[in-house]
C-alpha cells in the first residue's frame, strides 16, 4: 500500500509525517445515547495506527466480510508542535490545521470486543479505517462553534458543533498530552456526533467543515 501523506486544501503536501491518530470515544452525549453507552467520567481514548490513514477523496474501500462498517464523521485536528503535559494555551499554539475524518468502525466486531472487555484495535485500526480530508490552516483562535456535517446520497446524516463536545478541544488535547506525547504531524479525532450507521457500496458521501472545506467521495 502507498504511504499516506497529509495535504492542504490546495493540494500541496503538509511537510509533516503522520505518526499516530489519537481518538476520543463518546465525546457527544447524543452519540453515546444512540449506542446505549454510558458517558465516561474521563475521556475514553484509543489510537488508530498511521497505516489506517487514507485520503478521503479517493474511493473508500471497506472490509467486505467482517460485518457492519459504520461511518463516524469527526473533526480532525492536525498537531504542529510537540505537546507533553501541555497547558490549554500550549495546545492552542500547537494546532496547525483542521480537517474531517471518518473513524470507520467494524461495529459488530467492536460490540464483541466490548462484551469481552478487550481493546478496540481490531475494529478500528484496520488498513483504510481512517479516511482523512485535506486540511485547512487553523487561523482562527476560537475553537468553539466549528460546524461540520455528512450527507449520504444528498440526505443529511450527521451534524456536529464543537460547542457540543463533552470534553472541549483544548482541555481534551491537553489531557491527551498528559497521557503520552503528541508530535508534529499527529492527528486528534475529537469524537462523532449522533447519526452513525453502516456504509453501503456505491453511496456518495459529502462532508463539509464550516464554509471552508467541502469533500466528496464514494464507497467502493
Ligand atoms: Zn469515533
Describe the 3D structure.
By secondary structure, the protein is α+β, with helices and mostly antiparallel strands. Helices cover 17% and strands 32% of the residues. It has helices at 29-34, 88-94, 107-115, 121-124, 169-179; strands spanning 20-25, 44-49, 53-55, 69-71, 73-79, 95-102, 105-106, 130-132, 136-137, 147-152, 155-161, 187-189, 197-198, 204-209, 213-218. The chain has a six-stranded mixed sheet with strand order 2-1-12-5-6-9. Strands 11-10-14-15 form a four-stranded antiparallel sheet, with no helix packed on it. It has a three-stranded antiparallel sheet with strand order 7-4-13. Strand 14 and strand 15 form a beta hairpin. Helix 2 packs across helix 5. The mean pLDDT is 96. The protein binds zinc ion (ZN). Zinc ion (ZN) binds at residues 23, 72, 74, 103, 191-192.
Present the secondary structure layout.
Layout: E1 20-25, H1 29-34, E2 44-49, E3 53-55, E4 69-71, E5 73-79, H2 88-94, E6 95-102, E7 105-106, H3 107-115, H4 121-124, E8 130-132, E9 136-137, E10 147-152, E11 155-161, H5 169-179, E12 187-189, E13 197-198, E14 204-209, E15 213-218
Parallel strand pairs: 1-12, 3-8
Antiparallel strand pairs: 1-2, 4-7, 4-13, 5-6, 5-12, 6-9, 10-11, 10-14, 14-15
Amino acid at each position: 500500500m502507498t504511504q499516506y501523506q497529509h495535504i492542504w486544501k490546495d493540494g500541496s503536501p503538509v511537510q509533516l509525517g503522520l505518526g499516530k491518530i489519537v481518538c476520543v470515544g463518546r465525546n457527544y452525549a447524543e452519540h453515546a445515547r444512540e449506542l446505549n453507552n454510558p458517558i465516561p467520567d474521563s475521556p475514553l481514548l484509543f489510537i488508530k495506527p498511521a497505516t489506517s490513514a487514507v485520503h478521503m477523496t479517493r474511493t473508500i474501500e471497506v472490509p467486505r466480510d467482517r460485518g457492519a462498517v459504520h461511518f463516524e464523521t469527526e473533526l480532525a485536528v492536525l498537531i504542529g508542535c510537540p505537546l507533553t503535559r501541555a497547558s490549554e494555551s500550549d495546545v492552542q499554539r500547537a494546532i496547525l490545521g483542521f480537517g474531517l475524518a471518518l473513524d470507520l468502525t467494524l461495529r459488530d466486531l467492536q460490540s464483541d470486543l466490548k462484551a469481552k472487555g478487550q481493546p478496540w484495535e481490531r475494529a478500528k485500526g484496520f488498513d483504510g479505517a481512517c479516511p482523512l480530508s485535506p486540511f485547512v490552516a487553523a487561523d482562527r483562535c476560537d475553537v468553539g462553534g466549528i460546524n461540520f456535517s455528512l450527507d449520504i446520497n444528498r440526505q443529511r446524516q450527521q451534524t456536529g458543533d464543537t460547542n457540543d463536545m463533552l470534553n472541549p478541544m483544548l482541555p481534551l488535547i491537553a489531557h491527551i498530552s498528559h497521557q503520552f506525547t503528541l508530535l508534529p504531524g499527529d492527528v486528534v479525532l475529537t469524537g462523532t456526533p449522533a447519526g452513525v450507521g453502516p456504509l453501503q457500496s456505491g453511496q456518495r458521501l459529502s462532508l463539509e467543515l464550516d464554509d471552508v472545506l467541502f469533500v466528496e467521495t464514494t464507497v467502493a
